[in-house]
Amino acid sequence: MLTPQKPIGSNFGAATTADEVIAGIDLSGKVAIVTGGYSGLGRETARVLRAAGARVVVPARDMKRASAALTGIDVEIVPMDLLDPASIDAFAASFLETTRALHILVDSAAIMAVPELTRDARGYESQFATNHLGHFQLALRLLPALRRANGARVVSVSSVGHRYSPVFLDDPHYDRRPYDPWTGYGQSKTANILFSVALDEREKSHGIRAFSVHPGAIVDTGLGKYVSREQLVTAGVLDAQGKPIRDPARQLKTVGQGAATQVWCATSPLLDGRGGVYCENVDVAPLMAARPEIADMADAMRLVGVASYAVDRAIADGLWTLGEKLLGIQPA
Fold first, then answer.
1. 185, 226, 278, 309: which is the annotated catalytic residue?
2. Can 309 be counted among the known catalytic residues?
3. What domains can be seen in the chain, in order of their start residue?
């Protein structure tokens, strides 16, 4: 049975924090992996899950930076680079060798609005490769551990940025169309949503449920390093003095508020038996009535809900097939 793409009445809201979401939930005996877990929303998610009793593993491309950022938080830090397929395989193999079940996988790492067309060693566009393909490969390699949990959740951190672009299955790497930093980002974030739709359908019989989330606009995460101060001021994210504007009703959140939805999707009993949906403001988001017309960052942020092309099951299946072809792998 499909989970409807509509709010379920969580009794939380845009200003809710991750600490408030996790209150009263005991994760003792659970294991979580959080990509991007040493910066911004990922670090907050790792901190909150660990405080609730979970054993948390943080894959890190920069081990030194990760160790410094996670000082005082009792997590495992293990090398992994989402742009390096061999590194992903090595990380997954090492985890599987422990024979541990994996109860929570949060895909929080991302890059955004890379200004020039950049490709990885395979020739794949960097935002699509990092934000989608790297996480797709990681999840497929970890399926045995996720199935072993008999009730696992996979949470993909997407964005309102999905409204910038659908996935172009016939040209995901800009081989035949002009590159644009924001459509590249948008395509990768749409892919995160579609991946959750496809994974949930394929793996719910094994007890794995998948969700995607929009955390809000949080400027304290380091994700926006390619976005100029002028752009952020124009979008209403920063004030004229360059200070962050906090207004959860407009998705302008603190890190704690931004991490709330992904923590909720990873842990809330309200979502038992549900999956394959896009969430925002700590609830299932509504489906947008029409394809959004996006002119700039401010346009993307003012809208509520998920674009229909991002939850289309046929497109999700097509993306899954493309991912298997590009990576040369299939589920375990």
1. 185
2. no
3. 18-327 (3.40.50.720)
